[in-house]
Amino acid sequence: MSRAHATVSEIIRSRRSIRHYLPDPVPEDLLNDLIELALEAPSSFNLQARSIVVVTAEAGREALVEATGGQPHPREAPVMLVFVAESGAWREDRADVWEQARRCGAWSARFAAASPDDVRAFHEEPQRRGLERELAVKDAMIAASFLMIAAHAAGLATSPMNGWDEAKVKAAVGIPFRDDLHIALLLPLGRPAESRLHPGRRDRSLTVFREAYGR
Amino acid sequence: MSRAHATVSEIIRSRRSIRHYLPDPVPEDLLNDLIELALEAPSSFNLQARSIVVVTAEAGREALVEATGGQPHPREAPVMLVFVAESGAWREDRADVWEQARRCGAWSARFAAASPDDVRAFHEEPQRRGLERELAVKDAMIAASFLMIAAHAAGLATSPMNGWDEAKVKAAVGIPFRDDLHIALLLPLGRPAESRLHPGRRDRSLTVFREAYGR
């Protein structure tokens, strides 16, 4: 059931995290569209320090069942999206990014030329504080969040999963020894086999504050 | 310019991060709606381990200018949203959450009753690995991402900001000595005073992989 005519507000309000999925495959065109919308998410310096591994084969999904301690999602959902955070992105050559932004007219030649140095200078502090990984995870989370909303608009369900053994997930997607890559999130994608009610939200006096944090 | 009739796909594709803002205040009703949509974002165990501090007063925004090394956003944008990650949430009493989810009919009485123990068991591993902060930051990022999309649909601009001195941001929102609270993101919100072109995205062969990570 596509929700093409629903407003963003309606989409956000009606989205629920879904635990059980129908086996119907996600059409390839739709899957490609959703991944493109995820990658439209902004990222720090447009570094795009995140990747998506699309796992559809049964062996890969079974490895993710094992990595999540036997959760049903990876077995039932036809697609598992593994969001990978690339904490070493800022050390890599991203000439393609600077050149493309300049060619698109989005960045001036001067801004593009300064970017490699700016990126290095910016990362000194997070590196010192051990937050390189967190920075990349944050960009991966924006992408995953955009996909959660886009998927629901297209009539598909997702459920952000944090309960997994990171080493096992990394092994499942072929990067057991990559210290520069981290798992940000697992996101099953497919047609929902259940409906879920809204579990409510805490009183806003506990979660929203004016001018200063209040508790 | 509200984009109430645009599809989610159009909203996501046309959203850009904006550096310069008009001083027009964000109407209170709209601000409340956007915050509500942010808080609709899912969170791990529905723990809602994130809060939003809404900074509109000039003194607070000037403190954020200083904390961001002189960036223009906090001075120009009428609203600065500070997303706070609460890494100690899982140790706190969240009886209100369990009780509300049960009352809404979203969780069974048994599931609600087991949640405090489940939450503690789940957090043992992240605690051991020093990832409690990252977990809370991830939930804050989903909320911030939902707000980015909702704001653009309502005709307002945002720009996720990572470049700040965390101690200074914490001082600006009144939590200089709270080790259990962390800054996930700064998000200026307001009417855009500029338009930005799309800077492009890396070739998908570098960012999307099937079954296994490929570079």
UniProtKB/TrEMBL annotation, chains A, B:
Gene3D superfamilies: NADH Oxidase
Keyword Flavoprotein among UniProt keywords: yes
InterPro entries reported for this sequence: Nitroreductase, Nitroreductase-like
Span of domain Nitroreductase: 12-191
Requisite cofactors: FMN
Keyword terms: Flavoprotein, FMN, Oxidoreductase
Keyword Flavoprotein appears in the UniProt entry: yes
Pfam families: Nitroreductase
Family label: Belongs to the nitroreductase family.
PANTHER family per UniProt: NAD(P)H NITROREDUCTASE YDGI-RELATED, NITROREDUCTASE
Name of this chain's protein: Nitroreductase family protein
Species, as recorded: Actinoplanes flavus
Lineage: Bacteria, Bacillati, Actinomycetota, Actinomycetes, Micromonosporales
